[in-house]
Amino acid sequence: MTRTSAFAIDVPETLLGRARRRDASACEQLYRCFERPVYSTALKMLGCPDAAMDALQDTFMKAFEKLPAFRGDAPFWGWLRQIAINECLMRLRGRGRDEPEGSEAFEPDLLEHEGLLPPQAADAARLTDALRQLPDRTRAVLWLYHAEGHTHEEIAALLGQSVSFSKSQLARGTRRLRALLQVTEAPHA
Amino acid sequence: MPDFDHSQPDPRSDGAVPIAQALQALPLDAPPRSAWPLVAAAMSTAATSNASARPRRGAARWPYAVAAAAALALALLLPMPGGESGSAPVDAGGALAEASGTPAANATADLDLPALMQESARLERLIAAVDADPLQPADALVLGLAFEDQLAGLDAELAAAPRGSRDAARLWQQRVDVLSRYAELQSSRRLLASAGQPFETTLVALH
């Protein structure tokens, strides 16, 4: 199944033009359009509603500040998403010291069947809860790769790390997610 | 551009779900409150001054109304094809001269608009300056929000009113009246505060 990013919303050029000229109602329309994708991405990557609110606010402040310089040779949503992701990564870098020991150790590649999650993953609340329990950067890599469709090369560049770091985090996060979902099922089995 | 080839085969018969599919299927989260008033306030601040400090959560919502009104005023002031320029007489309180009642009544109302808008903008600048006090008492903030809501209602009507119509002129007049009352209250509050006296909002009538 292929699905586009939640950000993938086409915006009329006339609306962007008005927003570039600081038209308040046009800016508000853009905000309303992308409020949920930005907040949702921030919440998934940061795992904390307060931090996600701050990222939401700062993303739009930066976006409207930089909008006059947006050339429009790529879709607006991609440009905005990049600002949102950068805001999240900036906050994660600030939390870097809290990463658990060994989170950067090499992790073997996933076997084919390990790319599948147990059926409980279809329960949004359970999956969200399991995601929240992952280490920050592991969760971010998992989200960027699977939900936003970034490549390992892109993730490595965003995080200032190597491609093998990204692959390793993905493998570790996936295994941990599987384990968390299986553990939560145990009492009901 | 990021690729999207991470999806794996469809769920197996045992109910296992490909991780990409499971993550992409998560519903979008809605923020507990809108960040727009603060974003708009920051835009307004950036537009009117070079102040670098950004308002954080919990800041007053008033600057948003100011920004929205300024944008609306700008839109309405843009020259219209075949339109007339010039201003109509408006007294110190912002009273709109009565339309003649002739077929040219709409044109008369159009002539009055620039003066009303000018007065509205002047009052907004005054209020923005007075309202910038971050240490306002809670009751004054609540009062400010009530005025802001009243103003937002008028702005919504203005957005729907045809340009240059008598309705638009009447709404602009009401806007000036609301702003005048709020400016007067805020000035009184400042004056009382400087004299060390409390500002009794319970005695203030909003309408």
Structure description:
- The complex is a heterodimer of chains A (189) and B (207).
- Chain A has 189 residues and is mostly helical.
- Chain A has helices spanning 13-20, 24-46, 49-66, 76-94, 124-132, 136-147, 152-159, 163-185, and one strand at residues 116-117.
- In chain A, helix 3 packs across helix 4.
- The radius of gyration of chain A is 18 Å and the shape is elongated.
- Chain B is mostly helical and 207 residues long.
- Chain B has six helices and one strand, in the order E-H-H-H-H-H-H.
- Mean pLDDT of chain B is 63; it is low at 1-5, 7-12, 50-65, 71-109 and 202-207.
- The chains are: A mainly alpha (189), B mainly alpha (207).
- The interface between A and B is large, with 56 and 50 residues.
- Strand 1 (116-117) of chain A pairs antiparallel with strand 1 (17-18) of chain B, so a sheet runs across the interface.
In terms of quaternary structure, what is this? Answer: heterodimer
Q: Helix count of chain B? A: 6
Mean pLDDT over the residues of chain B: 63
Unreliable stretches of chain B:
1-5, 7-12, 50-65, 71-109, 202-207
Class computed from helices, strands and strand pairing of chain A = mainly alpha
**What percent strand of chain B?**
under 5%
Radius of gyration of chain B: 24 Å
How would you sum up the global shape of chain A?
Answer: elongated
Tally of helical segments of chain A: 8
Helix content of chain B: 55-70%
The helix content of chain A, as a percent range, equals 55-70%
Number of strands of chain B: 1
Describe the largest sheet of chain B: none
Which structural class do you get from the secondary structure elements of chain B? Answer: mainly alpha
The two chains with the largest interface, and their residue counts, are: A-B, 56 and 50 residues
Overall mean pLDDT of chain A stands at 85
Order of helices and strands of chain B: EHHHHHH
Distance between the amino and carboxyl termini of chain B: 55 Å
